[in-house]
Each structure stands twice: as structure tokens, then as C-alpha cells.
């Protein structure tokens, strides 16, 4: 959405990204379920490690290429994994139950860190995040009319 191109090109990019995302998920599900069935068939029953191994192999085969779509999916999953592991650690008693909701502190640290990285080490951020943050925090300094927010935000012509 934050690409500098025509609306038609943006729509084409969105359609292509949606296709790639859904295709990769379909390939992964097919691979994962196939490997689960194969392992259960070989061992005569399903065990918890089968899920991990099948997902690792499927992840390697389907999502192992470092491209923008796979990168987004992996980052999405990583954040959910960290939340899940935190909850599991509390549930199992590895860490104590927080006295108050830790989410406001997490939100503050995440936003503080990402804006610091954007301002001083932008090249370390994922390209689509760089692009959206550039649009929101730098390009928004100058605007011409509402079309800057709907279609594009950098013009070479002057009014």
C-alpha cells in the first residue's frame, strides 16, 4: 500500500501478494498434513514430535525462501509464538503471573524500539516496514491534497 506507484500497479501488487500468500499456505498445509500422516503410518501412532518435525520440514520447503511474502508470514508467526510461549511459561510456573497487565509496557517498548531503529538504523528494518514508516513519518511532512493519502504521497510536479 505504501509503494510509490499508480493505483493500478498497487492493486496488481496486492493481488499478486494475495495469490502468493494463499498458494504458500496451501502448499504448507498439504506438506504438513502429508508428513504427519506418513510419520503416524510409519510409527503406528501420532506423537507430539511429529507436528514439530513435519512443520519444520514444511517451513523449510515452503517458506524457506527469503522474500517479502514469506518474511511477513514468519514475522507474524514469530510475534504470536512469543506471546504463546510467554503464556505457557506462566501456565507452567516457569515465570510468575504478572501482578498487572504487561501489555502497556510491551507496547511502549515495541514502539520505542521500532521508531528508534527507524530514525537511526533504518536499514536494519524489513523493507515493507521501512516503506510504510517512511510514508507515515517522513513523507507526511509535506502534502498537497487528499490524493497524497489515498493514491501516492510524492509528486514531482508543483502546484
From TrEMBL:
GO CC, any one term: peroxisomal membrane
PANTHER family: PEROXISOMAL MEMBRANE PROTEIN 4 (PTHR15460:SF3)
Protein name: PXMP4 protein
Record organism: Neodrepanis coruscans (wattled asity)
Taxonomic lineage from the root: Eukaryota, Metazoa, Chordata, Craniata, Vertebrata
Gene, per the UniProt record: Pxmp4
